[in-house]
Amino acid sequence: MTSPPITDSTRHAVYTGRTTNWPMVATTCVGALFVVIMGKQSNGSWGDLLFVVPLMLVAIGILANVLTASSVRAAAGPNGFTIRWGLVGWPRCTYGLDEIDHAEVIELPSWRVSFGLWWTPKRTNCTVRSGPTVRLTLRNGRIVTVTVPEPAAAVAALREASASGPDTGPV
Amino acid sequence: MGRRLGSGRVVPQEEQGKWTDGIRTPRPLTNCVYDASTSSTMRWTIDHTSRERLQDQIVSCVRRGVASGELPVGEQLPPAAELGTALSVDRNTVLAAYRQLRDDGVLEFRRGRGARVVSDAPALSSVTEAAQKLIATARERGLGTNDLIRIIKELT
To answer: Is the model's pLDDT at A102 over the cut of 50?
Structure first.
């Protein structure tokens, strides 16, 4: 087993944080259950595709929610910024220091919270609450917004790593 | 045009709260409208060139976190593989550190729930007590803080 790559800095600080949003998952599950019960009571039967297909979609929605909105774990340091979603730490993505153009703390309004993973061609959002949030601007123009418990600490770790590591440009 | 998720006002650096080595003054979530989430956070400092074993450095980080209240009782630590990747150390090194902390009664392992803090580091309070005695003795002998630090550095 080999260790992951390390930067040329001798002493480095790494920030790790985890945010779990169980109320959100519970609300989704209760809402989905309500939809299923209502459908079943109206005219649904287990052999009816018009009932089973929406049911499957609801199940997929719950699964996606549990996987992406239940827990967000982030690590920031010399190896860049790593995000792992959900109970099993998947999906996950890592943005190396050389990929990050700018890291900052933003004040996320409640109406812009994605409550889980939300991907668009220009943005990646993984926010489970409003308030202070990390926003990374990548060199390819993509904007990544992630909920972490202490955004300032995560940004500070990235800046420290960028300052002490190899020439990766400003973070 | 739909709403732009993830947009928000940039918080100036002076408003973000400070995070310096060992001293944390996080900014409270005063403007957080929806915060039913639970969270944990930790800062790890590792020196790959130090003579101190990486395993011991990880143990020290956890002990420091527990002592400072950063890691309260019941807090879950990152999985060994994830922490190993973040710290650029082998997963087995992290596991060895976790096992050492478990043997010392600081952590407990639960199947499916990872490593959790179970103790508020009684060992550290005894160290603090011993340090207080040391300081008192040093004062009696007319030694200052710098003298004490020098002696400790020489011994370690």
So the answer is: yes
Phi-psi region of B105 (alpha: psi -120 to 50; beta: other; left: phi over 0): left
Stated pTM of the model:
0.70
What is the distance in angstroms between the Cα of B16 and the nearest Cα belonging to chain A? 6
B17 falls within a domain: no
Q: Is B113 on the interface with A (CB under 8 A)?
A: no
Shared domain check, B134 and B105 = no
Nearest to A114 among B6, B27, B84 (CB): B6
* Residues with Cβ within 8 Å of residue B109, at least 6 apart in sequence: B98, B102, B115
Looking at the structure of chain B, the number of domains it has is: 2
pLDDT in tens, B61-79: 998 888 877 888 888 888 8
B89 touches chain A (CB under 8 A): yes
Q: Are A69 and A116 in contact (CB under 8 A)?
A: yes
**Residue B110 covered by a domain:** yes
∠A12-A163-A79 over CA atoms, to 5°? Answer: 50
Structural domain boundaries enclosing B128: 124-155
Distances in Å between the Cα of A34 and the Cα atoms of A21, A85, B117 are 21, 26, 38
CB-based burial label for B91 (10 Å; 0-12, 13-18, 19+): middle
Nearest CA of chain A to the CA of B55: how many Å?
14
Tell me, what CATH number does B97's domain have? 1.10.10.10
CB contact under 8 A, B35 and A129: yes
Say if residue B85 is in the same domain as residue B70: yes
* Residues B97, B149 share a domain: no
* Yes or no, beta carbons of A105 and B6 under 8 Å apart: no
